[in-house]
Amino acid sequence: MECALSGSSFKRVIVVRILGILLSLVNLLAWAQEAPPPTAEEIPIPVGVGREIVELKMISLPKYEWGMGGGVFVLPHYPGSDQTIAHSLVLPYFVYRGDALKVDRQGRLRTDFFSSEQYDIDVSVSGAFASNSEDNEARQGMEDLDWMLEVGPRLVLHLLPSRVSFKATLDLNLPIRWVVSTDFGRVDHRGFTFTPNLIYRHPDTFIKDLTLILSGTMTYATEALQDYFYEVPFEFAKPSRPEFDASGGYMSTSALLGFGYRWDNDLLVFIGGQASYYDGAINSDSPLLRSLWGYSYGIGLAWKFYESDEMSSVTFDPEDY
Predict the structure, then answer these.
(1) Looking at residue 33, what is its pLDDT?
(2) What one-character DSSP code corresponds to residue 320?
(3) Cα 114 vs. chain centroid, distance in angstroms?
(4) Which class is 2-39+71-89+113-304 in CATH?
């Protein structure tokens, strides 16, 4: 699918929107921004065990917040590349807690109509940086890889009673996302991804206000996206890069370790790293899949500089902090 875009002002709007989503989507920043939840002493609730408590304490939080987040991230040029590149971003984020609709720091759209103690259904986003093929040995002479955006519904299963215990959380995320790429002159359809993800968060690890984040992810993608990364058309084939026809299916398994430290209510510092493994991938024989291991790491901060005087009454949820 191609959509023509024109006009410099319109391009700037698209750039700002997509970069904003990408920032909130960089996994380290997104997960780290979930601050340690209040203690039971700060928010008293009825006595009970686990998810047997149905009526939870209603608390007041600002209806909306503005902040800035950014950092430096070292990432592979693309999944399976044997070369890395450093990227930096400094962009705003927005939190909204409405009566029916909510927007959190991860850029997710949520509604209470599809939430419960056992699960949430929301809209999640993800993205990837562009890559210049001339800077990559494996892809030299081929077309550049554009900025990528993923968006789609997600089912979140809450496996630990976080909203009651105010302690560790364990969630199984099941997102299905539509993928597009853009050079800000056109938008192209790149298929769909399914990325089941198990994420564990533990507040006050080692010291107060230090949150541990552990995550494991499996990535599956349709042929359109696999073609974009791993297919070698006849016109780009050469002895060191033979023609290759990519297929859809299993892509990789990743593990992430991160820490987020909340300096005060307005400032959070994060650091983390991720390892991805491509052995057994459907396109592991592609000449463009140069490394079975890929490593990413980053460091940065998020600063909340404004919150509204108007408050919203919400059921306690660690992701609201």
Answers:
(1) 46
(2) G
(3) 21
(4) mainly beta
Q: Which is nearest to 278 in space by CA: 220, 209, 193? A: 220
**If you search the block for the tokens 């056109």, which residue do you land on?**
186
- For residue 1, the SS3 value is coil
Which residue has 């042929």 as its token pair? 223
Question: At residue 306, what is the residue type?
Answer: Y
Q: For the chain, which ranges sit under pLDDT 70? A: 1-59, 99-113, 161-166, 314-321
Whole-angstrom distance, CA of residue 264 vs CA of residue 272: 20
Residue 7 CA to residue 21 CA, distance in Å, equals 21
Matching residue, tokens 């215990």: 165
Q: Are the C-beta atoms of residues 228 and 190 closer than 8 Å to each other? A: yes
Q: 175: which residues sit within 8 A by CB, 6+ positions away?
A: 124, 126, 152, 153, 154, 155, 193, 194, 195, 197
> Which class for 207: exposed (0-12), middle (13-18), buried (19 or more C-beta within 10 A)?
exposed
What pTM, to 2 d.p., does this model score?
A: 0.78
Does residue 286 contact residue 38 with C-beta atoms inside 8 Å? no
Helices marked H in the chain: 8-25, 27-32, 162-165, 223-230
Q: What was the pLDDT predicted at 247?
A: 98
Token duo for residue 273: 């790293």
The two tokens of residue 59 are: 């608390």
The answer to whether residues 53 and 46 touch, using CB atoms and an 8 Å cutoff, is: yes
Amino acid at 241: R
